[in-house]
Amino acid sequence: MSIITRARARSVGLPHKRPNPFDNEAFLGYLLLVPTVLVLSIFLAFPFIYGVVLSTTSTEVGDEVLGRFVALANYLFEMARDGVFRTAFVNTFSYTFYTTIVKFVLGLSMALLLNQVFPAQRFVRAALLLPWIIPSVLSTLAWRWMFDPTFSVINWVMNSGLHLPICHGSTTCVNWLGTPGTAMLAMMIVNIWRGTPFYGIAFLAGLQTIPTDLYEAARVDGATRWRQFLHITLPMLRPVLLVVILLSTILTFADFQLPWVLTRGAPYNSTQLLATWAYTIAIPGNQLSIGAAVSLFLFPVLTVVIGVVLLLLRRPE
Amino acid sequence: MTNDELVEVFERDPELYQWTRRTFLKRTGALVVTASLAEMWAVACGGSTGGTNTATTGKAPVPRKGARIVYTQWNSFVPAGDAEVRRQAQEFGDKFGVEVVVQTITQDDLIAKTAAYVQAGDGPDVISMQYSWPHLYTSACLDVTNEVNILKQRLGAIHPVNDAYTKVNGVYRAVPYTIVMNAWSYRTDYFEKAGVSGFPKTFEDMLTAAGKLAKATGKPIAQTVGHAYGDSLTMWLPVLWAHGGKETDAGGKVTINSPETLKAIDWALRAKAAGEVFHPEWLDPDNNQAYHSDNISATLNGPSIYIKERDTNKKFDKVTDNAVMPGGPKGVFTMNLIFNQAVMKWTKEPETAKAFVLYQMDKDNYLKWMAAAGGYDIGPFAAINNAPVFQSDAKLKAFHDVAYDASNKPIGYWPGWPAPPSKKTSQAQAEYITADMFAKALAGTSPQTAVKEAEDRLRNIWEKP
Fold this sequence. Notes:
By secondary structure, chain A is an all-alpha fold. Chain A contains 15 helices and no strands. Chain B has 21 helices and 12 strands. In chain B, β4 and β5 form a beta hairpin. In chain B, α4 runs antiparallel to α16 and α20 runs antiparallel to α21. The longest helix of chain B has 24 residues. Classes of the chains: A mainly alpha, B alpha/beta.
């Protein structure tokens, strides 16, 4: 009830009604936010702050109280003395960078193709989502089997099917998970396979919101398909593109299941990512605080990435 | 414990262990003698027996009727063994009016879950802990010294490796449970075809055999040099020790950068050149699969390869035999997978949980479990280390002999040896530092660089302020 209505009620002698706090829009707004804030505080803010606190102590798994305060010693120790950490840091960046680019290109291509009219369109769209739907651990185990040097179906196809000279007649020609370069490539292939459908479906949803009359007008003006893509499709898709890239970058930076199941850091830690190295140190290695420090190295990086994407999103048209 | 005290334990609950008064006294008397001999034996050999009969024991734990406990262990590579664990849990529950929930999870997940339970301060009442976990999670494990002392009275001396893992600062934080032995499983037909008579006794002989096998059969001797929690550690630490190398000395001083370590790496390089194949990508199940699918002629593993061939596959069972670890210049060194039962501090039923663990360790029950698992495990006490299952199948002898030698003296070491098990040895083990050192050298890094890198990583652990 507004102030004016209450004043009128008083002036005509109607009985006075107590003000309803829910009539206050600002109050109601904050009230409705409470559940979300609570959930975010419990499941995101608290673990994050606890992680930050842990990383500045010497806590180990099972300690009943936090270990002694060591300030930034864990971070400095990792940067200065841990060679595996440095490898994991570089790997995390290259893993995220290359997979994001490839997923973007493939996902956009997939969306453009799926946006056409063709038979069994719905079935194909649903089927292409399968890699995203299957639990990562199961699909990665299947990939591990396919990359196995002894049983590799990929090698078998390369040798017996395609007769590639690289195989020299052997089905064990590429030891996919046995050398640093190929193991990293294998991890990227699986990540791209799993992540591309997410890009594709999200981009497809964006494509379907672009008004068709824009394309019709462009065609009337004689624009080629390429120019239509550059000047209509890409600009109109920009918000979706940026959000998908943002989400994918965060998820790929923090990827754990896939690299852990596929390589577990082997051979000799050449495929460690920050997430797998943090786990190795914190859980089997028991150094909870150092593990927390390793995982928090991602935070400033991700903050910058998120900041840039949000700025781009807010850029006026 | 005096005889009167033993009688008191028996009289309070004779049904618990299904022994008559006479057999109880007879067996404990015999065990006292056996244990004393074992202790003398071990001391003479410079080993530890984990103490035997000098320890005092209190009352045996008595299960509370109506209690409910949860027991968590790994998924064994021999499912029949897990089935027997469940049967015994049911039997224990029926007998004492309690409910025992047996929860099995994969080995990889067990440490993550255990760490989560410990951090949360809640979870299963009993956890089957691997390697040095009682040293990692000491404050979360109840003192079970009394129960261990009871078992020492009944079953004799503890295997020194289990003893070192379970005893933390003089207090037992877990009950010694089992040893999963690691020995070589090999194809006798391929060895014969290659003209190699029997499995090599030394690492030097292994080079010759590896060359002949690769040439004559195309089926190499193969092993992981990757991040496999069992097979990688049980291979590369003994190779290092057998050549005289050690990660640290007994006091924790990092000593890996030594001529002996370089000799061990040199052996690995020569083995590779001769035809042995070391896989940096293999995890624990991978060599099993390679063997069962006829791709390799020999590999180091737990008994699961042989047991699967013997009991299920029946494809290469007749041409599979097993052999102990070869020796190096410094002798024969073995390492096995170790499990011990910890009763967790958060349990609301500590007596029932401890009684259940003792029930599993009852000699008859333990032997039934060993028989069900077909020789996959061996007991960590003197009275259960030479079970009938090892007598009935001569091919299992090699597995027995990597935990107890031919004269039944306990043998074997732990990751980090000669430093005693600790959080630091555990961390070095979790990071696969020694295996990585070999893997890097085998991939082409200079041995000196690989050793230096391992040294730096070990220093990060042992000399961290």
